[in-house]
Write a structure and sequence with these properties.
The protein has 103 residues and is mainly α. 34% of the residues lie in helices and 4% in strands. Bound molecules: zinc ion. The site of zinc ion has 8 residues, from helix 4.
Length: 103
């Protein structure tokens, strides 16, 4: 089990403020923890949501969406914020099984 990283209210405020620009790698550097732990912190605090059975079910009602063109097929269909590929491309690339490929 990875070590538990204490997250203060100040940390959460920083994360929320920068949620749209920071990457999981930034967060792992900030907390000096591994990428996987950083994802858990982001997910647990509803800052950034990740797909996959590994993480608890996301709460769709407060999920932020965006229309950024898919990095694969350029589809602008709305999808969860921070998801760079549309569902079709994700399925094709089997990206759900590659959490560390998330940028
Ligand atoms: Zn696509």
């Amino acid at each position: 089990m990875p070590k538990r990283v204490p997250v203060t209210n100040q940390d959460l405020a920083w994360l929320r403020q920068n949620a749209s620009t920071i990457t999981v790698k930034d967060v792992s550097a900030y907390f000096n923890c591994c990428v996987d732990t950083a994802k858990r912190i982001l997910h647990r605090n509803d800052i950034i949501h990740f797909d996959g059975a590994k993480y608890e079910k996301r709460r769709d009602h407060d999920l932020k969406m965006w229309n950024r063109p898919c990095m694969g097929c350029k589809s602008t269909e709305s999808r969860p914020k921070n998801q760079y590929f549309c569902d079709v491309c994700r399925e094709r690339n089997d990206m759900d099984n590659d959490h560390d490929g998330w940028v």
